[in-house]
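Fold this: ABC transporter ATP-binding protein
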Amino acid sequence: MEFLELEKVEKTFFSKESYTEAIRDITFSVKKGEFVSLIGPSGCGKSTLLSLISGLILPTSGSIQLDGTEIKKPTPETGYMLQQDYLFPWLSIEENITLGLKTMGKLTKESRDHALYLLDQMGLGDKTKKYPGELSGGMRQRVALVRMLSTEPKLLLLDEPFSALDYQTKLKLEDLVFSTIKNHKKTALLVTHDIGEAIAMSDRVILLSDRPGVIQKVFSIPAEIKDRLPFDARNHSDFNGWFQEVWKELESFEQSQS
């Protein structure tokens, strides 16, 4: 059994007037320690899949299992990082990164010290008494990453966490998040519209079709790219070829639907 398993997962949203089939017959698995990206057209169900895996919503049919247990509600074993950092502006950085621990009843001297250690590893050890409004967007996203990691989740769900950042900050944060996840031996699932980001950060890239989202193709990224930091991966001689392959697959699918 794999670490994360989705079996024939489907989700339909109903209203009084109509229904919307978001995803259909989604089956894939993720190994422990693997980094997998989901890409596809807008509205293809990428974020819906993360919400299902997190337990925030339930599938219409099919099953999702994390480490052998079916997901039926949100669990502390899963961490979520979004495009917006959702830090509380009236709390200090230290209070923000320990809020999850406090809510879960896990705030001890040891867990607090660990959260502060992670913050220091992110280069923000001197910002504990600052407030979110005093930090840049990239700094706030690093704080959000620490808040997520401090509760020690088994699975990290990343929903376009870099898309609101300027390009230079985005590239730096990709490297930082990638190395942090690998060093802590975490399993991660990333949703992104950026093909280059998906290739540079992932072991595999899953391409979803237009709504209802189905798995169109899975790309296994070779070791010479996936074992490098994302910035170095982008500069590898084979990177452009992989980019073109994924791009052409996405383009050919979109053209066939038009």
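The longest helix spans residues 239-257. Residues 84-153 form one domain.
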